[in-house]
Amino acid sequence: MNPIYKVQYLLIFIWLLLQNDKGIDPHSIKSSNKGFVVLELFTSQGCSSCPPADEILNEYALLDQAEIIPLAYHVDYWNYLGWKDPFSNKECTDRQKEYAKLLQTNLYTPQLVINGEREFVGSSRLEIANAIKKELKYTANRSTFIDLNQIDCIDNRMLKIKYTTSLKENCNVILILVQKKGFSEIKRGENRGLQQTNYAIVTNFTSKTLKNKTDTVFLEFTSKNKRSDFKVVALIQNMNTGQVIASDQKEID
Asked: What is the radius of gyration, based on Cα positions, of the chain?
């Protein structure tokens, strides 16, 4: 092969690598004002592969767009590596196990599930950005909806959540308590020495069969942080396929 062509091919290859690393700037993604996308990242502070994926999710959280809902589920199965993730819990691991069955995958981190239907490595910037654009367009015409009408805090230990939704067969309402931001100094394990800031941290969630157009659900809320540091996310999810077909989010006053 001509040396000039070899150089050209090398330059093209390097350019493609750089594009895949950079992905697409989240700020360049325009919401449809009707569509939505839910990004469920299964992550752990004890996994050395997770910080890049956490950073990508953080970027989408900082966009603060109503139609893009990032959620960080901190799993507990890497805690034995020397560092117990302070945000980890068994319920997050259980949710990932449910997806593993539905999507026929193994448990791994960082894993990103988009609208309950697609999964891939959570640090794949380009793939994530392209999937978000596709989902915002694809979900723009869905008629199913859920609206969080009112959230009241009872004795600083319980949330009373009222919602209205369209009825849909074989679906559950998932109500998720999300801590907007958390900081950790990781002192042991694979990420030892890292000062980690996480966003959109799932701290508690509950699932209820969708039967009534209007309903009230109670969700445990115990935290030393201010209520304004949290929000509630609501999803309607088909429990047979995993598809998320509607979403909403609301700040806690």
From this structure: 19
